[in-house]
Design goal:
Layout lengths: L2 E3 L5 E3 L3 E3 L4 E3 L5 E3 L5 H11 L5 E3 L11 E9 L11 E2 L4 E5 L5 E4 L5 E6 L4 E6 L6 E4 L3 E3 L7 E3 L2 E5 L6 E7 L9 E10 L5 E8 L5 E6 L5 E2 L3 E9 L4 E10 L13 E8 L2 E8 L8 E4 L4 E2 L7 E9 L9 E6 L5 E11 L4 E5 L2 E6 L12 E10 L8 E4 L1 E5 L5 E2 L3 E5 L11 E3 L10 E3 L8 E6 L4 E6 L4 E3 L6 E8 L4 E8 L1
Parallel strand pairs: 1-5, 5-6, 7-15, 7-16, 27-37, 38-44
Antiparallel strand pairs: 2-3, 3-4, 7-8, 7-11, 9-10, 9-12, 10-31, 12-14, 13-16, 17-18, 18-23, 19-22, 19-24, 20-23, 21-22, 24-25, 26-28, 28-33, 29-32, 29-35, 30-33, 31-32, 34-37, 35-36, 39-42, 40-41, 40-43, 43-44
Length: 505
Amino acid sequence: MEFVISKDQWVFENSTNLYNGAEPIYNPNLKYICCSDKNITAIKSKLNSLGIQNCEVNSYCTFTPGSIFYSLIGNNILDVDNNGCDSNDVKIPNVKFTITGGTESGTLIANSSGSYFFPFQTGTHTIQPSLENQTHFTVNPTSYILSPPFSQNQYIQDFCFTPKDVISNIDLSISPKSPPARPGFNAQYSIVITNTGNQIENGIINFEFEGTKMDFVSSDLAPTNQSDESLSWNYIDLLPYETRKFNVEFRINSPFDNPPINAGDELVFSCNTTNHDFTLKQIVVGSYDPNDKTCLQGNAITPEMVGDYVHYMIRFENTGNYAAENIVVKDVIDTSKFDVSSLQITDSSHEAWARIKGNVVEFIFEKIELPFNDEENDGYITFKIKTKPNLDLGAELKNEANIYFDYNLPVLTNEAKTVVAIPDLIHDETETAHFEVFPNPTANTVGYLSSDLVYKAEVFSIDGRLLQSSLFPGNEIEVKHLPDGSYVLKIYTRNKVQVGRFVIE
């Protein structure tokens, strides 16, 4: 037996059997156990005591409790005309709910449809909705209490959000699509605009790109204006909490163009509207892992950005031979660096909802049925989260995620690293030189000498693939995880990039 689906009645017996109250089941090759969240710790402990390795235990085979449960469903409605919520009004996507009491305390973020479905087991639960700028809205009712005795299995409650004053606020973001930017190839980007105020908005999106490094190819939405390094689009009647998005495509310079673009180079895109701006910094790659995590602000943020939102994108790809029914992206947030309560979903490739317990965030693509053919097997989630306001210069924001495809072991993404740095340390490189690394050959670390502060070190394969990047690494970096072979090391100081070669054996 490789898979076990539990509905709370499974217990271990002896050393290699799982018992369900009827007969023991021999299971030396267990790979996956699905059970209720409350049983995960006990089952993992038992597996460990039995010496059973590489068996994944989670609750992701279903997203409703295994035993008797009660549910609350409804819609999140925006009172656009300020006369009470009715059929003429619109739904609000990704509303956040705080759940207290009972067995399901935490935070739930509804999906992008504007509807919600929350299952609960025994106990009294208080469900309270909120928006990002909640102080500028009234909500009716302010909360809903689900408590025993339960006379029915399902309860219905809509929440009506009404603007109570005037606030104009637009969110903009730019997200790279798959595949990412590669020298000589086309790359696509999504521009996402969301009205997070409470007024109907009209305006212009101004988009700037590095025209010497790329050529504009196309846009889903025809630009209102266009130049060699900029594009603009009008938006009209953008409702509160309405999101619109469109794609733009560029051809990235090859290593033989002028200027040449190589793996490891950085591309910068920016967009702005009346009261918001956004900058995407993207590293060009030679090859890529389809399951990865990226900070869209790049490898560094300035001290002025501390306490504000940073944006992350987690991409996934079904590389199996059958459609993935459910996908969960699990992200453990460092609460010493981030304010978990500020997290907001900004975009997703498919309909998704999220739950947050403590510092664990789970983005759930339920019944996604993600195909396995190359044209349709990609997906992503993007979110924003505020950093803590007291981060010091040099503080690192480090994070990675696990991606669960149905009953398989999770796929671990890379670790996304962003450092708080002063602008002088992150401006464009102006000089390239060669230097020696030591010891060479090496097995564990490589060192180098520099009279200037090294703010970034990168290791490339001989064919130009970026393998690792370290911010403020000191005078050496660890390379023991890399296989034997020849490598290129680039170190970045204030106005110089130095290149060296080394061998691991």
